[in-house]
Amino acid sequence: MSFPRPRPLNAAFVGGLTLATLLLSAGCADMATDIGLWSKARPAPPAKEDRTPPVTSTGRAAAVVSVHMRKSYENACKYGITLTNNLPFKIADLSFRFTALIGGGVPFDSQTKSFSELRPSEDQYREMIFQGVRCDQILALEVTDPGRCTLDTLNRFNSPAGACAKYSDIAASSLIKVTKKDK
Asked: Can you say whether the dihedral through the CA atoms of 152, 166, 80, 132 is positive or negative?
């Protein structure tokens, strides 16, 4: 009767596989990484951030929208916007729709940002993130009036479409082309 001869190479492979399985199932991924059984994903490169001072006035009494921060991620782009109230009355609520335009002027994504309870000379900051597109792919931001505002004598019951837009100015930005689109 003959007995099978042990094969050291097979035993080493099965033993290593068993060790890796035990370490990973026990939550010891760092130990598995240290001995070379597992490798961690490369960390994402740090985000690149560009900032300029916000534009607070355009020379007329208006609510001024200024895009003054851009942060580039691997697969997303974040913009920082400020609304400054240069009107002689309080802004109870004012919203803007920002549309990211990519190659050929194609709308990629839209986000609505609301600003509220701004007394004259005050400002508010908001951020918006466009997922699935890099900053260098966004050619322009188009700003439209979604028809939601409460300021002075205007409210959602008595304002026609586009009435809120006449109280706002869009400041030029060195970070991206920003345009105001009338409905």
From this structure: positive
The pLDDT confidence band at residue 67, using thresholds 50, 70 and 90, is very high
Phi, psi of 139 (to 5 degrees): -85, -30
Q: Which two tokens stand for residue 119?
A: 């007394």
Cβ-based neighbours of 74, under 8 Å, separated by 6 or more: 44, 45, 134
Q: CA–CA separation, 177 vs 148, rounded Å?
A: 24
**pLDDT tens by residue, 85-135:** 999 999 999 889 999 999 889 999 999 999 999 999 999 999 999 999 999
Ordered DSSP codes for the chain: --PPPP-HHHHHHHHHHHHHHHHHHTT-HHHHHHTTS--PPPPPPPPEEEE-PPP---SSSSEEEEEEEEEE-SSEEEEEEEEEE-SSS-EEEEEEEEEEEEGGGEEEEEEEEEEEEE-TT-EEEEEEEEETS-GGG--EEEEE--S-EEETTB-TTT--TTTTGGGEEE---SSSEEEEE--
Distance of alpha carbon 24 from alpha carbon 105, whole angstroms = 48
The two tokens of residue 99 are 């549309």
Position 94, amino acid: L
Question: pTM for the full model?
Answer: 0.73
